[in-house]
UniProtKB/TrEMBL annotation:
Coiled-coil region: none
InterPro entries for the chain: CBASS_pafABC_assoc_protein, HTH_11, WH-like_DNA-bd_sf, WH_DNA-bd_sf
Protein's UniProt name: Alkaline phosphatase
Chain ranges of the Helix-turn-helix type domain: 6-58
Amino acid sequence: MRRSERLQDMLQYTNEKKQFNLKDLIEKYRISRSTAIRDVQALEMLGMPIYAEHGRNGKYVVLDNRILSPITFTADELYAIYFAMLTLSGYKETPFEQEINSLEETFQSVLPSGIKDRVKKMKDSVKLDTPSHSNEAPYLKEILKGIIDEKVYTISYRKEDSRNMTVQFVTLQAKFGQWYAKIYNMNSSRVQTIRCDKILQMRESEEKQPRELQYLLSLLQTYHHQPGATMFTVEVTERGKDLYDKESYPSMSLTKTGNIYTISGYYNTNEEAFITDYIIRFGKSILSIEPSELRAAIQGELKSLVTHMEKLN
């Protein structure tokens, strides 16, 4: 094996280990001690963050924030990576905002000139916008790391009023430019969805034992549908179908019969106001609404809106 090939393989080998010693390298690559020492020095020059622990049982330790070994990409794979970076630029905040900026600088510095010209054209031509809002979510990075590391947090959350909850984060998602997290509430032993910008403070907690992430993910299949939920159907025109495509939720589905589209789903007892406001947005594209209780709630909300408008100057 040529030295360049050996170093390439050694980067991958040491990258997967938290610690190693010269004997490991000598036995794996069948090289002398002096060659192993020179190879370790070469790895350090390539950027592998290694430090030596001296003594009888001396060893090399690879830092947790270590680099990944170099990977060869095709041109289309490079375009795909850069396109993914562009999609993140549409968000006001992301979990790794500063890192993404430095990643783009690094990415640009290593691209071949021909590829660099093409990705510049991509950046100038591709515009991926998300709805703009002024809500700030400063804990996105901590939330994502908390999911990965399966940690429990005590958070201060603002809804109608401020409250403290002990939670484990399960998922992080963005919808219409707004960041949401699904949490497992340790106090109520159930899954909830919260807005990340409503989190005022969060700190790691050791009061409760964390649950395995795979178990919490399995709860997402049925967590939302509560006992006593109301089933509904709304028939709409093609214009209503377009509105549904722009905004819909996991508790809903859309089917087509001829030229009529049917939105089916359910809402829980405490979600009547939400579903009422949502269906009102479909306006004159609505053809029918069931059950009658939901139809009456929508009519009541519309009358309230008319009364409010009449009071305006």
